[in-house]
Amino acid sequence: MEQPQSLRSLFAAAKAEKTALEPRPDSNSDSYRNDVNATIAKFEECQRLVALASLFSSNEALEDVSTGDLPYLTVDYLFADILQRSYTSDREATLRRALELYESYLARLDDYQLLKPNDKKLYDRYISNPTSFSLAPTNDAASRREVKVARFQEEKELKEKLEYLSNNQGRLQSDEDDVRQLYLAEINLFTHEAFQSMDLVSQELSMLSAIRRNPPNPEQLPHSDPRRRNDDPHSGYSERLDAPLSQLLQGGRLRPLLSKEGKPLQPFTLLDRRTQLQQGVFRSGHNLPTMTIDEYLEEERKRGGIIEGGEKSGMKEEVDEDDMDKADEETMKARAWDEFTEANPRGSGNTLNRG
């Protein structure tokens, strides 16, 4: 049956856009989300056109489906795959819709007996209990690893066959049977990937459902849990990395160090440079003071580090200009020093290195 050009071109555009979306690094950007939504809209329209044209029926056999119609069997799978990779405000509803599309895709393949024996068993297992579907027991790590290895090998073989047929597509155009085999190889690969996606979707839905039924009780959370601290308005917890200005000026240990009379109001540590304090901020632990400023001053006084009486250490004593005796004494000292330096020039005593 010849298909309207609109369906053929729309399906080709949707597949090309879906392929272009997968390797993009900006998956968190608004532009990426807009492109995903646009591609989803194209697959929705393809799905509508396929149903409108009544391309497939459960009453017919695979031989009754024309080769040109076979690619449209994958519309539901491709739609489900991109829907699963999208993110909306209602993640659970999105996943359930994707699961329904995967089920619709497999059900149509089952009608045409396109499911291989192993895939048929998996499909029957899913139909019997959709909510707990899994490729292997979730509590048996060894079994899951064994299934994963086997399915990886199977997927590799399916991709190799599809790649071979795709690379020879130009030669295959003259043989309708070969073209048909190419489309069926693609369907087999998508079927393999559909079961893996359904396994992941079922696990994620199970977790989301458990969280919805049993939300965490703030009273049962550890005191260090951010969810508990956020619920307590008196905890003082904030997501801010810097404290509010009012807290910096008034709160905690940042109150004034000295009173108006000059008396220390709290213990503190004396540092030789500001960078010491800055470096201590990001180290583990806390730099706590070991003594008050009064204790520090008393300790310095005992060690002789503080000179009482206002005397200044290390400074030359000034001579009173009105004290003539003291002035003469200083003059005589200066003359004696000049005579000594004239009689003993610099370097005259160093005779060791003169040869």
Automatic annotation (TrEMBL):
Q: Which domain of life is it from?
A: Eukaryota
One Pfam family recorded for the sequence: TAP42
**Regions of compositional bias (Acidic residues) in chain numbering:** 318-328
Which protein, by its recorded name, is this? TOR signalling pathway regulator (TapA), putative
Positions of region (Disordered): 212-244, 306-329, 336-355
Gene3D superfamilies of this UniProt entry?
TAP42-like family
Where in the sequence does UniProt note compositional bias of the Basic and acidic residues kind?
A: 222-242, 306-317
The cellular component terms of Gene Ontology attached to this UniProt record, alphabetical and capped at eight, are: cytosol
| Gene Ontology biological-process entries | regulation of dephosphorylation; regulation of signal transduction
**Molecular function, one GO term:** protein phosphatase 2A binding
Mind telling me which InterPro entries this protein's record contains? Answer: TAP42/TAP46-like_sf, TAP46-like
Biological source species: Aspergillus clavatus (strain ATCC 1007 / CBS 513.65 / DSM 816 / NCTC 3887 / NRRL 1 / QM 1276 / 107)
